[in-house]
Design brief:
homodimer, about 290 residues, alpha/beta, Rossmann fold, 6-phosphogluconate dehydrogenase C-terminal fold, 2 domains, 6-stranded parallel β-sheet, globular
Chain lengths: ~290, ~290
Amino acid sequence: MKIGIVGLGLIGGSLGLDLRSLGHQVLGVSRSQQTCRRAIERGAVDDASVDIALMARAEVVFVCTPIEAIAPTILQLKTHLSPSAIITDVGSVKMLVVTAVKDLWHNFVPGHPMAGSAESGIEAAQNNLFVGRPYAIATTQTTPEDASEVIEEIARSLSAKIIKCSPSLHDRAVALISHLPVMTSASLIETCMQESDEAAIALAKQLASSGFRDTSRVGGGNPELGVMMAQYNRQELLRALDAYRQQIDRSIDYIKREDWAALKELLQQTQLSRPQFLKKTDCDPSSSGQKSLK
Amino acid sequence: MKIGIVGLGLIGGSLGLDLRSLGHQVLGVSRSQQTCRRAIERGAVDDASVDIALMARAEVVFVCTPIEAIAPTILQLKTHLSPSAIITDVGSVKMLVVTAVKDLWHNFVPGHPMAGSAESGIEAAQNNLFVGRPYAIATTQTTPEDASEVIEEIARSLSAKIIKCSPSLHDRAVALISHLPVMTSASLIETCMQESDEAAIALAKQLASSGFRDTSRVGGGNPELGVMMAQYNRQELLRALDAYRQQIDRSIDYIKREDWAALKELLQQTQLSRPQFLKKTDCDPSSSGQKSLK
């Protein structure tokens, strides 16, 4: 299949690496000439250009740009693509994308592969990024079923786990497990940086271990991505942050009142609940015995 | 050297495995007969007993019990140990331990290896748990220097990174990078569990990926340990939680006011700051090229 990728960052580049390994012909478009060159050098694309006209030959196009560029990109693609071409995106928010794209392209499949790393850009692209990862397909009533099936088949070939849902439910769910963690994690780092006791923070930097590393990871990620999540999923993120703040207040209250029984019950509850959110392929590195992918 | 370990959980058991590998004779004490048996079977100790009298032969004793049992354990040890024996602990809080032990044993070295995992108990014990990890030695003016040097030498032999500090500074620093993360992380899990939209939380469980896994890890850990941190480092943890709550409010404020420039600046700051808390040996698994231990 001839597959186009617009936006050759971590996700676009990683898609390209995998899709080429699977035997597809991959064409890439980036705003940056240097990114095009590196994408070819790294084997993420067969050909690349800063000119979106390169997409004319593509049967399927993955739009892997930042969220705010998705609709403008599709508007540009319109004049080049064959009407039968399928466009999909990888944006981490779906409601606003679906609304913006609705009247632009019929064969559009809203997608969201739940994969990432602390790094971004073409240099961070890697093979097998999507293996065992959830891949949300957030179709609406107007999404053509055959187009959706093509994207699902591609996602399945990346060994991703297809999860179908509505765009609104998608946005509420990712607010909780993806966008909220960015804010709670960033707030943790910022709390340390704002510490007025300089000796304490100097020591904290030395003592910080795996607990801090893991809890702070997503808060130390791509700032543009964090802002975009907040911008494009504002209402659901505010709802989640409000609920989160109540939980922080609840912990503070227990500790202030020295209600250790209540705190213990809370922590027992969180210990019991957490595994419901973990996949077999997504377990703690410490229990890597379960890390096989099948 | 004859080394005693009281408390054969994750830390005590892992210490035993390493110390035996290094050629020491390791004697273990646990309240549970079965733990003693498993510690011997797993090679974490040469001999083990539920009777603390076994410690009589030890030159150095690691007290690896829960924090509240440290002082009572040392009180019990008093009648069995030779006066030249050195006692150290591995408690994650130091001020209250130092105060409680002050008049019990002269040769006491307050310690805190910053290592852990989501698991606990003798079955979770592992070799090389302390490699490249910070090991705080939180001595006071009355800590005998030669005793401290012995413990530092042992910690160094585990390939841990010795960090000397005062008990009060230790407690303030770990409140920020160890105890606060437990609460922020547990609150994240609890926010999801309290979600009233059942379809959203069912989807969230399916979509949760590495971001949620990492951010929720320490909040899904040992509840007893979490409560003890709060109980024994209450004042510093409340101070940290209060500062954290202000950061959460700041994020909420930015998002409510749609001040995306301010949010971006905040996230740029946290992205820049986070690496200051990471060690070369403690980097993100995603950038595992740096994972060598030397």
